[in-house]
Amino acid sequence: MALLRILPRSRATSLLKRRQVQLAEAVASVEPILAAVERDGDKALFEYARRFDQFDRKNPRVTEAECAAAAKSLSPEFVRAVKKAAANIRDFARFQLPKPGTIELAPGLKLGYVVRPLETVAAYIPSGRYPLPSTLLMTTQPAQVAGVKNICVTSPRLVPEIFGAAHLLGVPNAFLLGGAHAIAAFAFGTRTVPRADRIVGPGNIYVAAAKKLLAGQVGIDFVAGPTEILIIADKGNPSWIAADMLAQAEHDTDAAAILLTPSAALAGKVAAEVERQLADLPTASVARTAIRKNSAILLVDTMEEACELSNRFAPEHLSIPSEKYLKLIQHAGGIFIGGYSPEAAGDYASGPNHVLPTSGAARLRGGLSVADYVKIITTQQLSAEALRTLAPSITTLARAEGLEAHARSVEERLR
Q: What is the full DSSP assignment across 31-84?
């Protein structure tokens, strides 16, 4: 039996129905951690850090000298890569940044909005099986473009590529903390950790559970589940498609890679390529499990049907062969168009953010962007004549709601 299953259209519903992320157990585990950090601050924070992260410091803040030393240890190739990726991410963030504006809808009715950055954000940077300096880029560069004054990064291991990159990028507030206790510290604030307005970045199931529980206490991006890619293709290079599926599968044994195609011939070639490429892939033990457990090729009748099924799935990453299918796509975290647009380009250096909604959340929102680091505050300026013109509508609606003082606050001005 082939490792990568090839399934008929009749299996679409079962294939595209995600395994529910089991947060309940993780939520039960992290609730006492969050309560302890809220109640006892650094005392609880340090106890959990010692228990889970082998924390052996007096202060979780990584000093500027430590970050500078980490930066000096980085290879010239890595430094160049960071700088190139950062430039593209910042340029795209500037392109996305909401611009303030005003409009006069009627004589004397001047309306608008201003854009103001958040004051403090915290970016969680994973450093478990795979340390992710790319996530540091994706979470801090839009924040800098937005004008956030206090940008903090936190990661559970002192990885030179993470903390050295923070130094290169001018992010001075670095912390050696991970897990649910780190999320709690930035949500509530402690003596050594500032309270954040928003916490962004992916993490393990315990980080996800903590963010879910604390949403409202602190702003979050979204609750991340297992990573996923959906590829739509009727032709193309089978080795490229297989490579993209494995690029997703190597993240985690819970990752999913799905190909929708009307071509049985392409399906067979891609399945064979996946097995061939796994033979010498250093991360094959992880990728093989993800391919076997969670991934498949689904045979469809038409490309249009593939797009319809993709919209039902609302994938984190979606690959389509050309722009002509873009008009059919309603739900996706990020869309990669054409054979020379691999998902890995977006993971690292092309510019758009790689922190994307999973588990169907792409039905509700797109990926992390510079807009997550700012507030849009509306402004209203009415002349006496504009208020007089609107007064009948205002007072009628106010009295319909039983709010007499609202109506009178307008009438007092027009006496």
A: HHHHHHHHHHTHHHHHHHHHHHH----S-SEEPHHHHHHHHHTS-HHHHHHHHH
Q: What angle do CA 381, 387, 388 make, to 5 degrees?
A: 160
User: pLDDT by residue (tens digit) across 230-251?
Assistant: 999 999 999 999 999 999 999 9
Q: What are phi and psi of 76, to 5 degrees?
A: -55, -35
Beta strand 256-261 with 334-337 is unpaired
CA distance linking residue 79 with residue 148, whole number of Å: 24
Structure tokens at 25: 């157990």
The H-or-E segment that residue 259 falls in is strand 256-261
Q: Say what angle helices 133-146 and 160-168 make with each other, to 10 degrees.
A: 20
Q: Please, which residues bridge with residue 256 across strands?
A: 228
pLDDT, tens only, 359-390? 999 999 999 999 999 999 999 999 999 999 99
Euclidean distance between CA atoms 241 and 184, whole angstroms:
40
CA distance 83 to 76: 11
β-bridge partners, 261: 299
Active site residues: 316-317
Which phi and psi (to 5°) does residue 269 adopt? -70, -40
Q: What pTM was computed for the model?
A: 0.94
3-state class (DSSP) for residue 14:
helix
Cite the DSSP H helix spans in 189-283: 205-214, 238-249, 264-278
Helix axes 24-40, 205-214, angle to 10 degrees: 60
